[in-house]
Amino acid sequence: MDRAEHERWCWAAADARRGTEVRGTTALHNWACFLTAQAGKLAVNGLLHGTGAGAWGHDLVALGDAMCRG
What we know:
Number of strands: 0
Radius of gyration: 13 Å
Distance between the termini: 13 Å
Oligomer: single chain
Strand content: under 5%
Structural class: mainly alpha
């Protein structure tokens, strides 16, 4: 497990998730939805990169498939 790489991606996911809270309370719901999706992608990438199965992209289905293969 590459803990440093995993943590780097997870911090980015946490930042995006915190952004959803701000956007949701200011009625910027479209941005809250966008940041929620980004947080999910960053978290999945964190798992993949942390385990050495680094995958790139924005397609959550493809990233999930990479998790199953990895």
